[in-house]
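Q: I'm writing a short explainer about WPP domain-containing protein for a general audience and would like to include a description of its predicted shape. Could you first generate the structure from this sequence?
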Amino acid sequence: MDSTKQDFQPRTFSIKLWPPSESTRLMLVERMTKNLSTESIFSRKYGLLGKEEAHDNAKRIEEVCFASADEHFKEEPDGDGSSAVQLYAKETSKLMLEVLKRGPRTTVEPEVPVADTPLEPADSVFDISGGKRAFIEADEAKELLSPLIKPGNAYKRICFSNRSFGIGAANVAGPILESIKKQLTEVDISDFVAGRPEDEALDVMRIFSKALEGSVLRYLNISDNALGEKGVRAFEELLKSQDNLEELYVMNDGISEEAAQALSELIPSTEKLKILHFHNNMTGDEGAMFIAEMVKRSPNLESFRCSATRIGSDGGVALAEALGTCTRLKKLDLRDNLFGVEAGLALSKTLSKLPDLVELYLSDLNLENKGTVAIINTLKQSAPQLEVLEMAGNEINAKASQALAECLTAMQSLKKLTLAENELKDDGAVVIAKSLEDGHQDLKELDVSTNMLQRVGARCFAQAIANKPGFVQLNINGNFISDEGIDEVKDILKSGENSVEVLGPLDENDPEGEAEDDEEEEEEEEDDGELDSKLQSLKVEQDD
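A: Of course. Here's the predicted structure. Afterward I'll give you a sentence or two in plain language.
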């Protein structure tokens, strides 16, 4: 017998499938975002989610499912993690299906609290929001809400969103809610009167408000109810009794000047608020003054969202000054307003008082170069720890690129940078891309779409991210990059640590487009040599 074969012992390998790497988790979020925002049988039936809403949902789903699977894995420490992976995939698919069936909503799901809040066990959460939006009348309400009247139930969090309550259903719900209000800490009654006549909707709100009066809530969501001033005042009894709110969501509620005033007057204390969101309202400058008063009384705010609220320069200045009292702020979202330069300058002064800022969303504010430079000069000193910076649609051109580059060089923790829909052109791209090339090991997303970029600018940004570990997406869509330029970008990505898969869609790129008029094109030709010389230092480094 062959002694070699006789003595051979097979080697065993132990492969751990859990936890997934950060890059794997990010890729999953991107895939889910694409699936949620792509036409399908569900979108034709329930509506198509926008990219921002899809991404927010995808991120939330992944975080929830990862936490659940990780807890499962801790219970089987000697296993290879395969069952945790299966649970992770199963729960992800399940929650994605729920989001698709719910359809698009202007309100994103409440974000995970900035504060460290322990997750509640499943039997403390009562949620009837799943499935297609439906009208609820008395008989169905009795059946749906029956778990809430069982003796000894431990429900602390209730969600009635996506169900439209009529008077009959509200009269059933009222006594039930009143009987358990002392144990409730979180109430979501967003989108719960959709399609009802105004008078009926207001009566339903009053019934719920009366029933919940005196509850001690940390979380309240009354979004998507087209409140206006009448709706806010219909919740008077509930709002006036709240002294301990930590999270308040009033999004897509038709919050006008009068409604904002009513809201500011009715809530007795916002001192404990950590999250305050007013997205997609008709607040305007006058209403912003009342929102600013609430903000001033909320020194513990950690997340403030006041995007798409029609606020102009005066309101923007008032908000910016009020935010100076919120020195614990970590996330600030003011996107899609009409601030202009003056409000941008006011905001730049406030940002120096926010040392804990991690996410900053300032897209579509008409900041122009002057407002932008003032803000980024402040951020360079006060917020080098920033992880997300969005400044799309602000008419930023190459003249601001050097200041931007200096700021970005200081921000080595950046994970996402959005400069889309500006006017950087190739001149600005060369400078900004150079600032991102060294360091920035955590950068995952870079969006410079619709910036009049051509071949040179596209190559610069590709070289800047080609070797970033775990990088997820480079968006250079909507520019004027030639076919040869696209091929060069792909070659750069292939030769680096990242593959060409990180390159976003190019369906809106115009390879024959012109970035400038004839006079400017002549100047560009004269500068070609200078641009090419700058590129010499931007080549991808490869290991020998």
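A: For your explainer, you could say: The mean pLDDT is 87.
Q: Perfect, that's easy to follow.
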